[in-house]
Amino acid sequence: MTLQYPTIADCVGNTPLVRLQRMAGDSSNTLLLKLEGNNPAGSVKDRPALSMITRAELRGQIKPGATLIEATSGNTGIALAMAAAIKGYQMILIMPDNSSAERKAAMTAYGAELILVSKEEGMEGARDLAERLQAEGRGQMLDQFGNADNPEAHYASTGPEIWQQTAGSITHFVSSMGTTGTIMGCSRYLKEQNPEVQIVGLQPMEGSAIPGIRRWPHEYLPKIFDASRVDRVVDMSQVEAEETTRRLAREEGIFCGVSSGGAVAAMLRLSREVENAVIVAIICDRGDRYLSTGIFNADH
């Protein structure tokens, strides 16, 4: 008998769902965290990265030897760099230069070409440059902000996993919003199973900078975003998100990024308002790609 071993691509998804312990306090609610940092390239973005490339191949939009282009704040870029390495494509990634050193290093480790724009240009500038490079014939842009294959990945995998792992008992779903692919795909699936499930999105408070999530200007709002799929939007301060991120590591042994800390902070707020609820929050990535930012320093 020939054994069939998995490839690295087969290891994307099926991440653990774990219970928050000390930080949950004395509550009738069950607080659960979906550990997306357990994906091979370390974040929830492994799912849409593989989905966007694979589905484009099936449609004949990507040919062998193609060069792919994407604007990213970090996690999608790392995931796409991994997926491109798996499948043998060249990858050009464009990101703001204030992204963490670990994110930049991870992308180039997978063989991607990295182009930086200024902090002032931000993700909007990165997206504009990606479109210009595609227009110049440098490669094929995947466009995570407007590509339906992004939320479809979460409709096909993340949402069903959460439903199965909670045995259909989930009452609230909390997710940070960047491209909005995670919250769009999960909302669609979970609402189909039970329309009463409440979908809570997280965005930075005005003036706060939380890596990976944005408070988008109207003209740059992701095309995949449908406001009707989100029941409530929480504005989160950078200070609260960072403090919760540190607490997760020190009190729960969960080492994650700041957008995940923000999602848990929103979960804890929500838990004070409801009873006998089953609340699930997405832990987008791992904390090791933020060490150089200093947020885990003892004197922070």
From TrEMBL:
It catalyses: O-acetyl-L-serine + hydrogen sulfide = L-cysteine + acetate. This is Cysteine synthase. It is an enzyme of class 2 (transferase). Belongs to the cysteine synthase/cystathionine beta-synthase family. The keyword Repeat does not apply. Transmembrane segments: none annotated. GO terms for molecular function: cysteine synthase activity. PANTHER family: CYSTATHIONINE BETA-SYNTHASE. Residues 9-285 form the Tryptophan synthase beta chain-like PALP domain. It comes from Pseudomonas fontis. It comes from the Bacteria. Its EC number is 2.5.1.47. Its cofactor is pyridoxal 5'-phosphate.
